[in-house]
Amino acid sequence: MRMIVAGNWKMHKDHTEAKALLGAMKEMSIPSQVDVMVAPPFPFLAIAVEELKGTSITVAAQNCHEKEHGAFTGEVSATMLRSLGVGACIIGHSERRQYFGESDAIVAEKIKTLLQHGLIPIYCCGERKEERIEDRQFEVVAKQIQVALGWADGQALRQVVIAYEPVWAIGTGLTATAQQAQDMHAHIRQLVRTQVGDAADAVRILYGGSCKPDNAEELFANADVDGGLIGGASLDAGQFAALVRSAGSA
Ligand code: PEP
């Protein structure tokens, strides 16, 4: 399976810094079996598409609205993203769930809209710290996936990238152990298999949560870890390039 390394810049970088980072990414060498994606903030998406033209890097958004268009001040549609040349979109990130009240029911609608417009949804799921302490992580993630993706057939699910991001590991410096990641990724793949059979083998499941050059190799080596969704380390061209290399040797 091809690996994916996707960078999520969140709300970081100004115009000049964004251009510099994109310029450095353009020079990055990408192993043939790795797909690279980058998700800058909305104002820099057009610049990213322009700057990365001629490379294999896919530009992704960090969110979109579930409706095609309308009176939704401050929102961005999948149609707009598509018209810019954006190829993917992160959906249901835990920060959007926590600060903007996004539910899996809304996320399901967003995923349907993205697929209708030919964009790859990068669907984020993962348990909170207290849920892991109570040993409820498998049940919590199963529920998230059931609500967000339970409607999808094999053809739709093949287009979806799933990112397992334990909330307690995002931006905290705490990382899931390779075993914790593998156990959850295998669980997710089994859930997808129960739903759509062998199409589950084509669904790429990324790990996210303080993934850095010094722990990536161990995480990416797991059978069901098909790459990473990277926050902090994607803001530094050298670290991001190192993660892409690790994916190439996994
Ligand atoms: C993320 O926000 O998706 C993420 C994984 O962040 P970090 O790598 O900084 O933990």
Q: Can you tell me about this structure?
A:
By secondary structure, this protein is α/β, with parallel strands linked by helices. The chain is built from eleven helices and eight strands. It has helices spanning 15-26, 45-51, 78-84, 94-100, 104-116, 129-133, 137-149, 154-158, 178-196, 213-220, 237-248; strands spanning 3-8, 34-39, 58-61, 88-91, 120-125, 161-164, 204-208, 227-230. Strands 1-2-3-4-5-6-7-8 form an eight-stranded parallel β-barrel, surrounded by six helices. Strand 2, helix 2 (45-51) and strand 3 (58-61) form a beta-alpha-beta unit. Helix 10 runs parallel beside helix 11 (237-248). The chain is globular, with a radius of gyration of 17 Å. Phosphoenolpyruvate binds at residues 8, 165, 170-171, 208-211, 229-233.
